[in-house]
Amino acid sequence: MEQLKQQIREHGVVLSEQVLKVDAFLNHQIDPVLMQRIGAEFARRFRDQGIDKVVTIEVSGIAPALMTALALGVPLVFARKQQSLTLTGPLLSAQVYSFTKQVQSTIAVAASHLKAGERVLIVDDFLAHGQAARGLADIVEQAGARVVGIGIVIEKSFQPGRGELERLGYRVESLARVASLEGGEVRFID
Ligand code: 5GP
Question: Which domain of life does this protein belong to (predicted)?
């Protein structure tokens, strides 16, 4: 997606050879027009999959996932990382190791928001080692629902996430594929 790559070139900050900061338009300040286009693009790629629900993880997955859900005309469910007084009733949960925070945490969704047989699209902001997406897929499958695709805004293709997810049989669609962050420069695959 050329407009996304342009934003990454202009506003992305390479923090290390492993980590890209995009706080100017995705992870802190959010560009609503870009999010709308991202949502439309995911919807275009997955529309034929009969999606019932979009699932993401708080916080940074919510903006692109919400616009995708809007474009597909389906609800969005986001997994919580923090326990909350309002998160009551039976929960579906998974353990996720956070790449950026370097801590293991439990993510959870109220069981009432996912139903057996539903066709689910997972959306997230970044793909690194695939831990977040795997945790979300685990939760979806605990509910008896089916993951029909994984939509990623920025994939770091030099890390093993895509390979792991494909090995598990998931279809992964990424809007920008970063080949390397070496030398402080973002290089894309295509
Ligand atoms: P994974 O679970 O695939 O290892 O990492 C994906 C998660 O970690 C995403 O939900 C994202 O929030 C965060 N993440 C991974 N790599 C980066 C990165 O280079 N930059 C930012 N801003 N977040 C990242």
Answer: Bacteria
The reported pTM is 0.97
- Residue 186: HSE in the Cβ half-sphere, 13 Å Cα cutoff: 24
Per-residue model confidence as pLDDT tens digits over 78-132: 999 977 777 778 999 999 998 788 889 999 999 999 999 999 999 999 999 999 9
Give the mutation target among 126, 129, 131, 156 for probing the ligand 1 site: most ligand atoms within 8 A of CB. Answer: 126
CA angle centred on 154, ends 38 and 78, rounded to 5° = 65
Residues spanned by the domain of 35: 2-189
* Number of domains observed in the structure of the chain: 1
